Amino acid sequence: MNWNRKDLLGLRELSADEINFILETADAFKQVGTREIKKVPALRGKTLVNFFVEPSTRTRTSFELAAFRLSADVINISATTSSLTKGETLKDTARNLEALHADILVLRHSSAGAAQFLAQRLKSSVINAGDGAHEHPTQGLLDMYTIREKRGRIDNLHVVIVGDILFSRVARSNIFGLTKLGARVTLVGPSTLVPREFEKLGVTVSNQIDKVLPDADVVNLLRIQHERQRKEYFPGISEYTTLFGLTKERAKLLKPNCLVMHPGPINRGVEIDSEVADGLQSVILDQVTNGLAVRMAVLYLCGGIAA
Amino acid sequence: MSAIIIRNGRVIDPANKRDEVVDLTIVDERIADQSAIKNQKTETIDAKGLIVAPGLIDMHVHLREPGFGHKETIASGAHAAAAGGFTTIVCMPNTLPAADNPATIAWIKDRANRTASVNVLPTGAISKNIAGEELAPIGSLGQAGVVAITDDGHCVQNHELMRRAVEYARMVGLPVLDHCQDYNLVGNGVVNEGYWSTLLGLPGWPAAGEEAIVMRNILLAELCDHHIHCQHISAAGSVRLIREAQARGVKISGEVCPHHIALTDEAIQNFDTNYKMNPPLRSKADVDAILEGIADGTLSILCSDHAPHAGFEKEVEFDQAPFGIVGLETALGIFIDQLVHKHHKIDIVRLIKMYTLEPAKLLKLDAGTLSVGAPADVTLIASDLEWTVRTDQFQSLSRNSPFDGWKLKGRAVRTIVNGKTVWSL
Fold first, then answer.
1. What is the pLDDT of residue A304?
2. Beta carbons within 8 Å of B382's beta carbon, 6+ residues apart
3. How confident is the model at residue A274, as a pLDDT?
4. What number is the average pLDDT over the span B8-30?
5. Does the pLDDT of residue A307 top 60, yes or no?
6. Antiparallel, parallel or unpaired: β B2-13 and B51-54
7. Are B306 and B82 in contact (CB under 8 A)?
8. I need a surface site. Which of A106, B211, B311, B358 has the fewest CB within 10 A?
9. Using CA atoms, how far apart are residues A212 and A186, in angstroms rounded to an integer?
10. Which residues of B touch A117 (CB under 8 A)?
11. SS3 content of chain A, % helix, strand, coil (to 5)
């Protein structure tokens, strides 16, 4: 197929074919990572700006490394070092970056829709690295890549996503991507963080993790974002762990080949027990490795269109 | 002595239950009997095929002056009103400084007298600085000439304070208008809580956040035996609550904005901030309930909630953009198009009543009728004229409208204030 998008804003607007095409492109780039010389000239002479208005270590580093491996020049800008702190609007900051001939803008922002906002206004490629509670498409893609790598397919697998779904962009990108590729998705968490409205997105909602785990092919645990949540959403961390944490005991309910995933950063002892996070079923670090290949694929495809 | 005869129009005057093709006479800035024309110079306006209505009243407008003249001035807002067919507009008090004191009211009235092409009637704040903590000097505001009190844009959360405000307003004889929003339930919500907020990850503004305060207002209207008017009703539950309370004789009423019947929250999916307003666009079921509320008379008043913002203020991230859209120049067209032509919910006579007699009654205005002796405020309407909204032709200083490019049927073609044509197509 021909890739014809300059931007990657979310997985909702992608077709199953487009998602598969990114995953196949990532296969080739994953192989590059195993060579002694891990660099290819695909984006040589291009400038990529990592524009992270919201803090991030993992995603920013992953994009930076992906760009290096594609031979792009990389600039990192964070909220505190940008003119946003001087009252400049997002649009003006981005247009200034474009005036410096930035070819690809990777945006992390606390507002849903921020990436789309810039994509509509810039000729540069815009890659969404997380916009509020909306989407985090490369995380969704690397999760799917990891499932496909470990289980050989996505179609007909039962993927259980546990935790704070309401505020999670990772959950939304996973829901959109996984349902397009034929997976069955169940969302589990407190009723306050997993509203029934999600069922209209073609997924099942459950508040009883013990009933769901035995049938799972993949369990993806989301971090409880206690820095974001107002206290009304649930009574406290220890009650959350009691009701929804993937404890050692609960992990015994899992099928032996069920994958345990987490987008990180993990809170050991809260949503997942330490032993489970480091256990044989855990593919948490594979996710990180795969994230690099997936982001190389996305930068390569979108960066090629913007040229 | 000067006279105008508006000839052969369909005169619709709900206050006098009039609907007939007849000439309308204006002598010396007042509606007059034809016999009042003697030998004075007489201008003739041909209104054949047009509706001759009492000057329309928009009782929910933000004029932004003092404080935010880059968004709208009293002069520009008044001209936008004239272009939309309105001869009287009621401006909200959330200016800078807030209209919570007689001096600011005097300033607004003076400014309006000197610069506005239509009648501008100020409201005063319920609470000092619209902060919801202490009562504003409601009696002095009344003496300064406000037509109602409201904290619009904000909502008094303390029920005790609101109760005292309503009791006090009753003594002064001022109606109370309320923007219904429970801050705890709404939190940082920016769009209707439902399918689209879930899909897009935008903070939800639940309908219950409006309904809870509508219910509060019903209880206080009963307790204080005084009228409370609920502004810009957006939710089905609010319509039901108001309908049930009115059936019990409670002095409660509600108004409707064009966007809450013409659009649903589906419109937000591209994060276009011209679809961001407060209260937010809601579901199809809410729109249907509002249309029913209009049809059965539960919701008796139409208004625009004209809320101008500069382009650069709106062109930001969705959750950071200010709420509100301009509406004066599209409101009448959308209401005629949607209510009369598209949904057949009411006829043009009822629509005119909701835009003239009803707000005039609520606010006790000497306006909204074509009775002999009334001020000669007249709007000529072409109810079947097809036209296209062009925001770049707006008289308003601001362009923040979701209706650019909409094809509408029906609009005002001439606006007459005190016998003087202030705008014509």
1. 84
2. B49, B50, B51, B410, B411, B412, B413
3. 96
4. 97
5. no
6. parallel
7. no
8. B311
9. 8
10. 271, 316-318
11. 45, 15, 40
pLDDT value at residue A230: 62
Chain A residues closer than 8 Å to B208 by CB: none
Catalytic site includes residue B305: yes
Q: What is the pLDDT of residues B298-314, one digit of tens each?
A: 999 999 999 999 999 99
Residue B156 carries which side chain, given as an amino acid letter? V
CA distance A101 to chain B (A): 22
pLDDT value at position A306?
63
* ipTM score: 0.94
What the block records as the tokens of B271 is 């994060």
Question: Which of these is catalytic: B151, B305, B337, B377?
Answer: B305
Question: Residue A158: what residue type?
Answer: H
Q: How far apart are the C-alpha atoms of B419 and B421, rounded to whole Å? A: 7
Neighbouring residues of A254: CB distance < 8 A, sequence distance ≥ 6: A213, A214, A216, A219, A260, A281
pLDDT band at A227 (very low <50, low <70, confident <90, very high): low
Helices within B36-92 (DSSP H only):
74-83
Instruction: Pick the range with the lowest mean pLDDT from A90-99, A165-174, B80-89, B379-388.
Output: A90-99
Contacts of B17 (CB under 8 A, 6+ apart): none
Q: Given pLDDT bands bounded at 50, 70 and 90, which one contains residue A236? A: confident
Domains of chain B: 3-50+375-424 (2.30.40.10), 55-363 (3.20.20.140)
Element spanning A110, H or E? none
Q: Among residues B340, B377, B301, B411, which one has the least CA distance to residue B51?
A: B411
**How would residue B109 be classed by pLDDT, with cut points 50, 70 and 90?**
very high
- Number of residues in chain B: 425
CA distance A45 to A30: 22
Handedness of CA B64, B70, B75, B80 (dihedral sign): negative
Q: Are B243 and B265 in contact (CB under 8 A)?
A: no
Q: Buried b / exposed e across B171-185, counting CB within 10 Å, b at 16+?
A: eeebbbbbbbbbeeb
In A, which residues are within 8 Å of B312 by CB distance? 89
